[in-house]
Hints:
Layout (H helix, E strand, L loop, with lengths): L4 H8 L17 H16 L10 E7 L2 E12 L3 H20 L2 E14 L12
Parallel strand pairs: 2-3
Antiparallel strand pairs: 1-2
Amino acid sequence: MTSVSAGAAELRRPRAAVPPGERGATRIADRVVAKIASQAAREALGALPPDAAPPHASVVVHHDTVRVRVSLDLGYPSDVGHQCASVRRHVTQRVVALVGMEVHEVAVQVERLHPVPVPGVAQGRTQ
C-alpha cells in the first residue's frame, strides 16, 4: 500500500518568504485606467441629456502617475464650472482608489452643450 499523507504534508508546509523586490509587479494597462476615468466622469455627471455622448477619457501613465483628459457633453443651461470641478474631483478619487496611482492632472474638455427643456419656460423664439 502507498501512503497519500506524505503528499498532503508537503502541501501544508509553509513556503519560504520571497523578498518584495523579487515578487514581480502588477501592471495596469493604460486603457483600463482610461475606462475607470470615463466611468467616474459618468458617475459625477449623473443623468446626461438625451442626445449627449457618454464621457470619453484618454490617459498618459508614467510610472505611478497619471494625467487624464476627459471629453464630455453637458446640458445647457447649467453651471459648467461646477460640473467640470465635480468631474475632476470624482475622477481623481476613483483612479486613486481603484488603481493606486497618483493623479497629476485631470483636464476636462466640454465638446458640446445640449439644450435641455426647462419645465414652465417657453422654448424657441418669442414675439
